[in-house]
Amino acid sequence: xxxxxxxxxxxxxxxxxxxxxxxxxxxxxxxxxxxxxxxxxxxxxxxxxxxxxxxxxxxxxxxxxxxxxxxxxxxxxxxxxxxxxxxxxxxxxxxxxxxxxxxxxxxxxxxxxxxxxxxxxxxxxxxxxxxxxxxxxxxxxxxxxx
Length: 146
Prior knowledge:
Blueprint: H1 7-24, E1 42-51, E2 57-60, E3 67-74, H2 77-81, E4 89-91, E5 107-109, E6 116-120, E7 125-127, E8 136-145
Antiparallel strand pairs: 1-8, 2-7, 3-6, 3-8, 4-5, 4-7
């Protein structure tokens, strides 16, 4: 991403280290549906997400990537308190126009500052709306095979 020193270059190094560690823990198997597609080299694309009161994201995937992730920079106090699931990330819920015979397995994770999550890019995920007057800032990223 960057050749310069500074906070973005430091973030890139942190992310690449976590990604490389994650990849090193995957099973070596041509039969494994995710691990078999592990890229030898990758591009790292990232963007910031700043959410205010009632901001949310609908269920989506990242079809051009192999691995996706999020790093939480700033989390509102009400989200940290955990009195509701507002501001949390949810995995498993599919878009409303997708119909299936059974309900999906859903997992929700409470964000906290400094938390880094990695997940296969084909996992549907969304952000639940929150009521906080504070911003929820995260860095989302994709690992795209080179």
